[in-house]
Write a structure and sequence with these properties.
- The chain has four domains: 205 residues, Histidine kinase-like ATPase, C-terminal domain (Heat Shock Protein 90), CATH 3.30.565.10; 132 residues, Ribosomal Protein S5, domain 2 (2-Layer Sandwich); 95 residues, Rossmann fold (3-Layer(aba) Sandwich), CATH 3.40.50; 117 residues, Four Helix Bundle (Hemerythrin (Met), subunit A) (Up-down Bundle).
- The chain has an eight-stranded mixed β-sheet, covered by helices on one side. A six-stranded mixed β-sheet has the order 15-14-17-16-19-18.
- About 1% of the residues have low confidence.
- It starts with 6 loop residues before the first strand and ends with a helix.
- The protein has 619 residues and is an alpha+beta fold.
- It has 18 helices and 22 strands.
Amino acid sequence: MTDSKPIAFKAEIKQLLDILIHSLYTDREIFLRELISNASDALTQMDFLMLTDRDVLDPDAALEIRLHVDEERKIITISDTGVGMARDELTTNLGTIAQSGARAFLDAAEEGVDQRRLADVIGQFGVGFYSVFMVAEWVRVTSRSFKPKAKAAAWYATGEDTFTVDVAEKENRGTIIEIKLKEDAEEFAHESRLRQIIKKHSDYVRFPIYVGDDKEQTNRQTAIWRQDPREVNEAEYNEFYKHLTLDFEDPLARVHFVADAPLRIFSLLYIPAKPERGIFSIRKEDGLKLYARKVLIQEYTTDLLPPCFRFVQGVVDSEDLPLNISRESIQTTALMARIKRILTGQINKQLRTLAEKEPDKYARFWSAFNPFIKEGIASQESDREELYPFVRFHTTVHPESWVSLQDYVERIKIGQDKIYYLLGDDERSVARSPHLDYFLKHGYEVITLTDPMDSFMLLGLREFGDYKLQNVAAPDLELPAAEVTSGEQPTPEALSPRELEKIIARFKWHLGERVTDVRTTDRLTDSVARLVDPEGTLGQEMQRVYRLVDREYEVPKKVLELNPRHPILTSLCALPPDDKLNIAIIEQIYESALLIEGLHPDPASMLPRIEALMEAALR
């Protein structure tokens, strides 16, 4: 192909080529993204130069990228009208370029970084051009510099140990890349396939891209997220969302954020109407689309938002993320962390605004996405307090509507220093819980938690402002002050100490090791009994967590507390100890307490006993 003397690639470039050719086989389409990105950079440089100096070769040439395919010969040609390169620049840029970038890429590969991720971020190492050898039998780069007196040159390589550079004929400035496809890469020898790749990876490149003889450009070019939010209407936002996700529903909310400092960021983020992806959704994984200067560098980026916001869809574009081959590898960890803080703050702000100004829409959000927020509170070690205002509950005062922690605190009683809650399996059983007796009688509002995720959430939600959260089922609970109201019914007479001793002995004898203790309590008013945890055991919250994850869970042995003023115990005390009805009532009291706690292993087993008790009552 040339009479020039072959030049050896640097050792690291040769290693790099081996990895690209043999290890990134499944992601070969990225070669086109990288070459278009390089062409876009060359055009950007040309555009900047011409702002101050039009003494260049072909000053009136359109800034554009063109692709042609010779299907018969299996050759792709990519051309641009950018700054171009002279002979020595071809040698430097394509033969020894970005050696530190190549070294960083090799180190990442040796550390076992996922190959797909390597393919996604290849441009950030400054080695993107070499990805062409995944599909190329040979590559020829013919270029002419923008400098009027510069001469054209051609670079040629097959991906082996050497390359050549020679003089060439080219009248216009810019670069032409010819790619002879390998036999197993012939899928790319079709214009339709190239258009598909451009739409996926380079749809928002700043300069027009044309394929074949098309007079209409293939890429969209105008990135909606880079526009002034005041210039985009609702229909355009929704259209872009549906184009991005193929969701048939409009999004629930969006955040269009543009900033110049401290980082230059453009982002358009959407909160979907529901967490489930539709059957036709093109977004099969979590993560945002990450662009650098409108060039897609990662399809699914999970490092830009905390996991609890992984339902958010959208795009992020930053001027501060390098992609082109002229830059060397950089440490992006700190930069990505800064972008993450900014975007997370924007989502938090949007949710607060939604809750304050559109409560009905926020209720829809909470119903759909509350498991994500609860998971974040449970697992997010830092900044979990930022999520507290988003949580909504039902309470004993408002069993049908959603209540925030702030709503609860604003209604708190004078002298009350805790936020009371109760865990249960469903709202109906919780509403009948004996643990609520005292609180309902004295007008204290209690949050009812019936979602399986609530137990996990409580691992990270222990206080809100100046108020600690307190489980009303805790055995060591310090009761709040009793509130005496006019017209209150007189308290029934309690059993005598001797009668109590006798009734407790009966319960202990019949229940045996199923309970750790039986005792009386003054915390019950309407209920006959309740179950509480023995001191020194796992609390109700952790028991439910273990139960949900099936981690060596067994029905816990608890303390049975009796209401010494309840008429059932008064009547029970009058029965002979060995009376069958006495035994049935004791069993039913215990199993009813298990049932209300959501701990009964077989509720249907109670039916014969309940029928026997009804027969006895009708005699």
